[in-house]
Amino acid sequence: MGKGYTGQVLRVNLSDRKITIEHPDDAFYRTYFGGRGLIAYYLYREVPGKADPLGPENKLIFAGGPLTGLPLAGSGRNSVGAKSPLTGAYGDAEAGGFWGAELKRAGFDAVIVEGQSSTPVYLWVHDGEAEIRPAGHLWGRLTAEVEKAIKEELGDSHLRVSQIGPAGEKLVRFATVVNDLTHFAGRSGLGAVMGSKKLRAIAVRGHQNVAVAEPEKIRELARWMGENYQQLVGGLQDTGTAGGVVSLSLSGGLPTRNFQQGSFEGAEKISGQAMRDTILVDRDNCYACPIHCKRVVKVEGTYEVDPVYGGPEYETVAALGSNCGIDDLKAIAKGNERCAALGMDTISTGVAISFAMEAFEKGILTLEDTGGLPLRFGDTTALLTMIERIGAREGLGDLLAEGAKRAAERIGRGAEELAIHVKGQEVPMHEPRLKHALGVGYAFSPTGADHVHNIHDTAYTREGASMREARSLGILQTMPADYLGPEKVRLLYYEVNWRHFMNLAELCIFVPWTREQVLELMKAATGWNTTTWELAKAGERAINLTRAFNLREGFTELDDRIPRRFFTAFKDGPLQGKAIPAEAFEAARQLYYDMMGWDEAGRPTAAKLHELGLGWLLGE
Amino acid sequence: MGKGYTGQVLRVNLSDRKITIEHPDDAFYRTYFGGRGLIAYYLYREVPGKADPLGPENKLIFAGGPLTGLPLAGSGRNSVGAKSPLTGAYGDAEAGGFWGAELKRAGFDAVIVEGQSSTPVYLWVHDGEAEIRPAGHLWGRLTAEVEKAIKEELGDSHLRVSQIGPAGEKLVRFATVVNDLTHFAGRSGLGAVMGSKKLRAIAVRGHQNVAVAEPEKIRELARWMGENYQQLVGGLQDTGTAGGVVSLSLSGGLPTRNFQQGSFEGAEKISGQAMRDTILVDRDNCYACPIHCKRVVKVEGTYEVDPVYGGPEYETVAALGSNCGIDDLKAIAKGNERCAALGMDTISTGVAISFAMEAFEKGILTLEDTGGLPLRFGDTTALLTMIERIGAREGLGDLLAEGAKRAAERIGRGAEELAIHVKGQEVPMHEPRLKHALGVGYAFSPTGADHVHNIHDTAYTREGASMREARSLGILQTMPADYLGPEKVRLLYYEVNWRHFMNLAELCIFVPWTREQVLELMKAATGWNTTTWELAKAGERAINLTRAFNLREGFTELDDRIPRRFFTAFKDGPLQGKAIPAEAFEAARQLYYDMMGWDEAGRPTAAKLHELGLGWLLGE
């Protein structure tokens, strides 16, 4: 086999300040690949069970994949992972941008951050080297200020920064890690882990070209995408990820007022189309991507927004908008800017606030609890004030900074019913009463409610790109969005495996690579004679590694649950009277376990672990 | 999707002489593909449980695959299937040659033969049409005579004939179906099913080019193989499939004297090299194949052999040679010729005779039983006489024509221990004490002991083509041939699925197409955006269909057993003292069940059936 495909992993211990470089072999990369696969491997092996997520035993891992850093649309991503302080389970999140590519060009596939520093520091990684530098002067400052300061301090305006904001410093449990100011490893509260280690940022700069087995093949595919993406991505470039807000509202699947409704009367006002026609000043992209789905907005006046922080994605528009009953796009843009500056996940922030708004409207929270702030749906002041208070951990904000689940448990008085989360992670902006299998996917996801490694049932109700892709795995027929029968579960099993592989490869799911092209890309990058079988199994392997991690933490099948709200019918709107049938949900969840080779308690069988080359887990 | 990939199935009822043509749709072909997939589907749906294999309820199905008939090395194969009279289980066998390609060029993917004729008939299929013709004048004649007679009668020297011989007429339970005189759907006793229907032959002639989605891609790959096969196939063309006899004997894996030994002192005399240097007069091929691995031999004198019947394969050399203790290549060639002329499977014939030889040497059979014939290992007269008697069902031959299992049961007196079979099918010429996982594969094979849809452990002990292919599925490390641990079972699970797909595709495993090329071929032929995942799952689907068939017939996990002999150590030779450890075997078999999603009784779980799109089996 020769040397094969290899790389470097940077290991930094912030307790003893030891820095080492490791060289995993070809078989390691071919087993764990990158992203969630690589992170789950290291977390399982190296973080002891029941470790405090915010203590020195937890590890924070940044990881790319085999395609990261190649001049290729969709390859500008990296994952960040740790045991999550939000869920207590395996945690990771992916971010786009330029930082991941820069890390690879600096010679590293991954950075493992261990221990805790006693004083604020940042890490400077450049062309195969790394140093720990003091960051006391950066502590407490907004993300844009910090990025600017680091660039000046190191004298390199082209370096890239992945960092936390003040919310991460204050251990807000849904604090994010921010790439390049505008790209977020939003979920799982990884910013709090970084904050607990007093690591404010990792600055990187690399000048190496990423070596691949077949560079001409990579160039050829990149060229193909450059020439064809426009007809494939529809309105993504024009209106961004929020381009579907109005149609989603019409279909009844737009989370509204803390998931009490699925349709929002102000949908048009907060849509991607409205954004394009009002506050949009530019379109941004990730490394090597021609699509430019990212927004850059500018607002002056009351809700002054600095375009350096980009603009809101769909998740943000819904989480801070419809789900808080807010139809003022400028206020949403302001909320987005503040979350970016403070380093907070907009989904969890929005759902924590919408939870509080519903609790306030239902009298569970009073003006006394809120420090005199009326917390009503639709109130932009309430939204923006609460974002500040969460970021500063002030008053009710300090409670909400613990996440909706913990907040509800402390409030009591029936508040738990209003906390829309899975395993403690707030539910993203996709409605399971519209997309039933997505709800099942929420339940078993290792990181709590997750919309990325999941299927969106509506995409399979008709012929189109998703059905074409499903067909490539042997699933031949379209099926309704509210169907939860065996064929849907099979689709879920196959596609969630594949979505996990896309994470391992760190390929963006918005770039319309077909499964066939992804295979070609992987072969060209690594030189492996790999197949869709091997890649899908690598995704399945990663799921099972995260599952093993969570089982060790004490999670059981009882944690694979979604909020009761989703089994309760909508009172109005396009889906009036519709809910997920609890029995069908339970049958589908169990059938998914069975297909995965998990027992009734959700534990992978020995045969499944052996089948995935994970037999070593049995000896642990 | 448009019309997609479609074809025609010819259905012929010999009871009422009704002939119909069916047009399955794209989804049918994409689910069952061809070969074992298609045959198992029809047999499960249409043959009632517990049907008499030799009665009118059984159906005999000839099927090609999506590549059959294309101008492509390895595509000249077809399967024949029915409920097996030898095992009472699902039965099929594959044959090379030219007949399958001709059938496809005549417009048909498959022929389903139903019912029974009261008088001998043959079927004449030509360019989309079919007719049943009388065959009384052909009955009882040798295969070469019949082929010649049909060609003369129909006035077409280019037509192709698939037929049975006199042994099939006499319902010898291991009678074969013969393509073009020299290619055999040898196993499962399908010739007896054909005989029971009084169908002597199917003659076909077609002038249609097989339409494919991307003809240029097919041509390109065919050209590539034409230019590269010689360096890839080693000595296959030079010495044929028997080229490995000597090295196999040296490694201890050459079945000798009814599997009592694994090494044969006369190995060199019966090797492919010896054949090349003595009796070989030509090398033959299958449709569109440049490799010419088939032998044509000519012998004059005592063992006069007519070259019209080709020459012996490895399986025949070992079954009639070493396994009967015979080192006379000319006698073996004569035995091969007679099996071809009479239409009998050389493996089962050889093992039935070696069984009788051992029984005779051990005094279980006497001269009284044998009609005065001394049945000793190494006795060429004994071998050739018994072949004639089996074919004619005379004396002890009539008993052996029932197969070694039934014969042993009737003889009693401990003879059962000497009948080397699985589910009633005699074990082919591969030694499980050398290749341990192959033994496990023998056990669960739906058709009884089978070496084609199986792995050969020795191929994975070193780097080479097999390891390269295993790696493409994510199995990265070589492993010993006598290792039966989880990684070997995983290899078995993955590769047996894939070997099944190769059957569905009707691609010859001797043509060194890589898995990647097979995928390209499938895409080019069908226009499907298929993946290795979909194809391997199609193979797994076919296994489960056959499993469902056998379960309905009353087979249980207790039938997934191999002869006790393989758990008994060799007394001499290179593997002296070696046997399969019974506990490791049992653990591996159970682990294979678990990986397959079969319960402890070997029944596919509902989840596994749903996962494969076979949920309809649950409603049956």
Describe this entry's structure for a reader.
The first copy, chain A, is globular and about 65 Å long. The mean pLDDT of chain A is 97. Helices cover 38% and strands 12% of the residues of chain A. The first copy, chain A, has a 6-stranded mixed sheet. The first copy, chain A, has a 6-stranded mixed sheet with strand order 8-7-12-9-10-11. A two-stranded antiparallel ribbon of chain A has the order 13-14. Chain A has 23 helices and 16 strands. The first copy, chain A, folds into 3 domains: 9-205, Aldehyde Ferredoxin Oxidoreductase,  A, domain 1 (4-Layer Sandwich), CATH 3.60.9; 234-426, Aldehyde Ferredoxin Oxidoreductase Protein, subunit A, domain 2; 436-619, Aldehyde Ferredoxin Oxidoreductase Protein, subunit A, domain 3 (Orthogonal Bundle). The A-B interface holds A 1, 27, 30-31, 463, 468, 471-477, 486-487, 489-490, 493-494, 514-516, 519, 528-534, 536-538, 591, 594-595, 597, 605-608, 610-611, 613, 615 and B 1, 27, 30-31, 463, 468, 471-477, 486-487, 489-490, 493-494, 514-516, 519, 528-534, 536-538, 591, 594-595, 597, 605-608, 610-611, 613, 615.
In short:
The structure is a homodimer of 620-residue chains. Chain A is α+β, with helices and mostly antiparallel strands.
CATH superfamily of the largest domain in chain A: Aldehyde ferredoxin oxidoreductase, N-terminal domain
* CATH topology value of the largest domain in chain A: Aldehyde Ferredoxin Oxidoreductase,  A, domain 1
Strand order of the largest sheet of chain A: 2-1-6-3-4-5
Q: For the terminal residues of chain A, how far apart are their CA atoms?
A: 30 Å
Average pLDDT of chain A: 97
Q: Characterize the biggest β-sheet of chain A.
A: 6 strands, mixed
